[in-house]
């Protein structure tokens, strides 16, 4: 591992720089200043990674009682940005609170975007990421939408892999669990004007997570389809993973729970277009109006979050070549009609958290629409098995990247 040496050098260089900053005496030409002077590029650079390791590691949680996103690993990765100097050196430090001005733009106008991906421990004890460059590209697109700075995704991914490697013992020893990775980008400018932020912070925290389906088998979800809640609309930012999209959904989720349902089915417009389910993309396997077996999901029309699971399932289904695979808009009316004619086979949400999550019922305008996903469970199960086999390294695939 060359990283031990790099690590040592980085700490060395960094402490030089700190002494230069805190010193009150004459300016010294420190190695860091030299590097900066020579550098013409202010993007994120893995070469500049600085590691400040933890002194006392935290106890690891019991893998059988993990609660999603409740515990975090020993370290975090952060990179500061300013309009004047570009990206600073990436730093791995002990997991710690942030220090932000109360006026920071992220706290007032939700100048924030994030990502969600996982590291998986295979039976061969290797750690793998699933299509992580897709997350890097999506975070850059979300950053654009929030007028936050873009960055070199490949270099940042190298830093992220280094972080996971340092906290590798936190990746659960289980082929049902994983390490959830949360890259976050926030505007930190201490100013109340509704403006582009002139400073930003990109950071990553890691959280060990248990199985999505606790019983070990699929548990289906029942959905509330209430057109009075709208998640996204044309010209909005529903297709970006921006924090501002999620806070307002909590009330709708509570309405669903108060009616004994698990998730919200998001509808749009007079025609009650079906867009997403909870924080997942939606898929339906049905016999369409022409009598063909077809897998449908809404197209990326600006209201749909471009899920990496969504993209992967579409590619898998096309490679099977066993039925039609279509990205097209469909409505509550289509679902009601197809349900009456027994033409719906399976419906499921798709996302990193669960891979696929079967739907068994939709409550819409006081009416229960039963969906026979659990009775059929052909492709829902096959998607789950094929994708998890790739994620945990049982099936070799270019979608899977090893963390050394
Ligand atoms: C993150 C997310 C998804 C799923 O994306 P994946 O990349 O598959 O995890 C779907 N819908 C919404 C609204 C999301 O936030």
Please provide a brief summary of the model.
With about 400 residues, the chain is of the alpha+beta class.
Q: Care to describe what's here?
A:
With 404 residues, the chain is α+β, with helices and mostly antiparallel strands. It contains ten helices and 19 strands. The strands form two sheets. Strands 1, 2, 3, 4, 5, 6, 7, 8, 9 and 19 form a ten-stranded mixed β-sheet that branches. Strand 6 and strand 7 form a beta hairpin. Helix 4 crosses helix 5. The longest helix has 20 residues. The protein starts with a helix and ends with a strand. It is an enzyme of class 2 (transferase). Pfam families: Aminotran_4.
> With helices defined by DSSP (H or I, 4 residues minimum), what is the helix count?
10
Largest sheet, strands/sense/barrel:
10 strands, mixed
Count every beta strand, where a strand is a DSSP E run of 2 or more residues.
19
Helix-strand makeup class:
alpha+beta
Distinct ligands, ions and cofactors found in the model = pyridoxal-5'-phosphate
Protein name: Branched-chain-amino-acid aminotransferase
Family: Belongs to the class-IV pyridoxal-phosphate-dependent aminotransferase family.
GO molecular function, one term: branched-chain-amino-acid transaminase activity
GO biological process, one term: L-leucine biosynthetic process
Ordered list of secondary-structure elements with their pairings:
Layout: H1 3-22, H2 31-38, E1 50-51, E2 75-82, E3 86-87, E4 91-94, H3 105-109, E5 112-114, E6 117-121, E7 127-130, H4 132-145, H5 153-166, E8 178-187, E9 199-209, E10 221-225, H6 249-258, E11 263-268, E12 273-277, E13 280-287, E14 293-297, H7 308-320, E15 324-327, H8 332-340, E16 344-351, E17 355-364, E18 367-370, H9 373-376, H10 379-391, E19 400-403
Parallel strand pairs: 1-4, 10-11, 10-17, 14-15
Antiparallel strand pairs: 2-3, 2-4, 2-9, 5-8, 6-7, 6-8, 7-19, 8-9, 11-12, 12-13, 13-14, 13-16, 16-17, 17-18
Residues 116, 241, 276, 279-281, 305, 307-310, 351-352 line the site of pyridoxal-5'-phosphate.
């Amino acid at each position: 591992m060359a990283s031990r040496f790099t690590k040592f050098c980085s700490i060395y260089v960094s402490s030089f720089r700190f002494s230069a900053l805190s010193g009150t005496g004459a300016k010294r030409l420190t190695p860091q200043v030299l590097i900066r002077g020579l550098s013409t590029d202010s993007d994120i650079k893995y070469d500049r990674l600085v590691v400040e390791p933890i002194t006392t590691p935290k106890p690891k949680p019991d893998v059988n009682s993990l609660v999603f996103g409740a515990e975090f690993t020993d370290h975090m990765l952060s990179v500061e940005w300013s309009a004047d100097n570009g990206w600073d050196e990436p730093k791995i430090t002990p997991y710690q609170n942030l220090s932000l001005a109360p006026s920071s733009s992220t706290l007032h106008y939700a100048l924030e975007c994030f990502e969600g991906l996982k590291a998986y421990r295979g039976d061969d004890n290797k750690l793998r990421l699933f299509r992580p460059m897709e997350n890097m590209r999506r975070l850059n697109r979300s950053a654009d939408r929030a007028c936050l700075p873009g960055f070199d995704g490949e270099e940042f991914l190298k830093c992220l892999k280094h972080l996971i490697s340092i906290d590798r013992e936190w990746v659960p020893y289980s082929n049902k669990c994983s390490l959830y990775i949360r890259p976050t980008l926030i505007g930190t400018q201490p100013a109340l004007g509704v403006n582009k932020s002139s400073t930003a912070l990109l950071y990553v925290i890691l959280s060990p997570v248990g199985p999505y389906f606790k019983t070990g088998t699929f548990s289906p979800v029942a959905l509330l389809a209430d057109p009075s809640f709208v998640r996204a609309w044309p010209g909005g930012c529903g297709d970006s993973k921006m924090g501002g999209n999620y806070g307002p959904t909590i009330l709708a989720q509570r309405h669903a729970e108060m009616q004994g349902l698990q998730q919200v089915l998001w509808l749009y417009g007079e025609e009650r277009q079906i867009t997403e389910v909870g924080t997942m993309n939606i898929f339906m396997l049905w016999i369409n109006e022409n009598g063909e077996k077809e897998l449908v999901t809404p197209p990326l029309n600006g209201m749909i979050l471009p899920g990496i699971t969504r993209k992967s399932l579409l590619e898998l289904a096309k490679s099977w070549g066993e039925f039609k695979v279509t990205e097209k808009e469909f409505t509550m009316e289509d679902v009601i009609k197809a349900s009456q004619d027994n033409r719906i086979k399976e419906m499921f949400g798709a996302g990193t958290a669960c891979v696929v999550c079967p739907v068994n019922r939709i409550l819409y305008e006081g009416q229960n629409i039963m969906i026979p996903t659990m009775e059929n469970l052909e492709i829902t199960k096959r998607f789950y098995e094929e994708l998890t086999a790739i994620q945990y390294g049982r099936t070799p695939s270019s979608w899977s990247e090893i963390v050394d």
